[in-house]
């Protein structure tokens, strides 16, 4: 009896912890691998990447905010990542390898550990929201991907190998005005602007010694990077005054600003480094006041607030029916 009583108390405490920030949790996708869902400016739609039949690797889809009308907006060829709406609500950008070949790129060699493929065939494209490509925005040799847009300024921030390292760059929505804004050796990626366009936050993996640098550069020559040691960095919109605000020695990534720009919400496996157990955490811009937001016990990441600031979209394996199933959820934010 005591065992069941304590279990009930623990479950109640967990539910209470969840409800402090997230209420009215709703599942929008069911099955497959779905991730990186981002809002349209009017809050009525979401763009996301998904691996689902008949496609063998990620493609870009759009759906209504309630999960209805899920449909393809990328070419269905190659591999895609990181779709994002422009401020006109009718255009999107995303990265794709389709010009390098119709087939999915060869998966990363996991004998080298858990690594990501930063495929050289990735370029960023501008398209209408019904999938018509209007312009190729990047054409530098190597990886160009991970683009997000600030709707107030129109600026795009993305990760590029154009400098020979994985750095952050900015450009205009037509691909003009490209500017490198990070130069520290190592990986800089997954950047997003604050809503006022004055700040940037991103994930970074900077080698700390010659051995780590040698491994980083060796993997990069094979279009690979190891993502399990990353911290969150905040800076001015031009990359200046950069400050690392986490120091967990684990994998912290997918950061986003709260609507008022005063806090950062991000994913981390800080409780179990080198695992796939990621939860969402909230912190002040200086790294103080850390608060754990989710307690799902599996993988939860890629949060973004709706334009009105009332709803959070995120990816999680909560209630998954199969291993490596990830779905898109929304919840009201308190």
Question: What does this molecule look like?
Answer:
The structure is a single chain. The protein has 334 residues and is mainly beta. It has one domain (23-333): Neuraminidase, CATH 2.120.10.30. The chain has 2 helices and 26 strands. The strands form 7 sheets. The chain has a 4-stranded antiparallel sheet, with no helix packed on it. Strand 13 and strand 14 (179-180) form a beta hairpin. Residues 1-17 have low confidence and may be disordered.
Which structural traits does this protein have?
single chain; 334 residues; Neuraminidase; four-stranded antiparallel beta sheet
SSE map:
Layout: H1 2-19, E1 22-27, E2 33-39, E3 45-51, E4 59-64, E5 71-72, E6 80-85, E7 91-96, E8 116-117, E9 123-128, E10 133-136, E11 144-149, E12 156-160, E13 167-171, E14 179-180, E15 187-193, E16 199-205, H2 210-221, E17 224-225, E18 231-236, E19 243-244, E20 252-257, E21 263-268, E22 279-284, E23 291-292, E24 300-305, E25 311-316, E26 327-333
Antiparallel strand pairs: 1-26, 2-3, 3-4, 4-5, 6-7, 7-9, 8-17, 9-10, 11-12, 12-13, 13-14, 15-16, 16-18, 18-19, 20-21, 21-22, 22-23, 24-25, 25-26
Task: Tell me briefly what this model is.
9% of the residues lie in helices and 40% in strands. By secondary structure, it is mainly β.
